[in-house]
């Protein structure tokens, strides 16, 4: 009887522990064309929690403690987008993000090269 009680308590505590977090999921796309942005980085600011989008621009971030967070999404060649998100216990908060393209104006890249003279004395 005592063993059955201990096993029951173990399962109960594991079940309760699994229900103290929430998740954020959604899609990251180009603001102009609505094309998905695969490989975009989405993260919860101030934590080490984040995800990269799949080929359809979809992401899922699990195991987030309840509260309000700043969710950020970034992609090369696009402006970083931020949105305030409320995470609730045992719920999935859906956040779709549209990123604006950005141009690197005023920056010039100069590539120079030279050829070393061949050593004819060898």
* Secondary structure: number of strands: 8
- The class by helix and strand makeup works out as mainly beta
Elements, N to C (H/E): HEEEEEEEE
Strand content: 35-45%
User: Helical percent range?
Assistant: 10-25%
Write down the Rg. Answer: 24 Å
Query: How many individual helices?
Result: 1
Average per-residue pLDDT, rounded, comes to 86
Q: Please give the largest β-sheet.
A: 4 strands, mixed
The dominant shape is elongated
Distance between the termini: 90 Å
- Poorly predicted sequence stretches spanning 5 or more consecutive residues: none
Features:
122 residues; four-stranded mixed β-sheet; 14% helix
Secondary structure topology:
Layout: H1 2-18, E1 22-30, E2 41-44, E3 50-52, E4 58-64, E5 67-74, E6 81-87, E7 92-94, E8 97-99
Parallel strand pairs: 1-7, 1-8
Antiparallel strand pairs: 1-4, 2-3, 2-5, 5-6
Task: Describe the structure in your own words.
With 122 residues, the protein is mainly β. It has one helix at 2-18, and strands at 22-30, 41-44, 50-52, 58-64, 67-74, 81-87, 92-94, 97-99. Strands 1, 4, 7 and 8 form a four-stranded mixed beta sheet that branches. The chain has a four-stranded antiparallel beta sheet with strand order 3-2-5-6, with no helix packed on it. The N and C termini lie far apart (90 Å). The model has no long low-confidence stretch (mean pLDDT 86).
């Amino acid at each position: 009887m005592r063993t059955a009680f201990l096993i029951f308590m173990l399962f109960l505590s594991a079940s309760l522990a699994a229900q103290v977090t929430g998740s954020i999921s959604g899609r990251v796309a180009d603001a102009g064309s609505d094309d998905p942005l695969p490989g975009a980085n989405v993260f919860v600011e101030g934590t080490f929690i984040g995800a990269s989008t799949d080929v359809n621009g979809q992401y899922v971030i699990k195991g987030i403690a309840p509260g309000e967070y700043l969710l950020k999404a970034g992609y090369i060649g696009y402006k970083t987008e931020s949105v305030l998100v409320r995470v609730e216990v045992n719920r999935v908060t859906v956040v779709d993000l549209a990123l604006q393209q950005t141009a690197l104006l005023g920056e010039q890249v100069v590539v120079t090269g030279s050829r070393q003279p061949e050593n004819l004395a060898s």
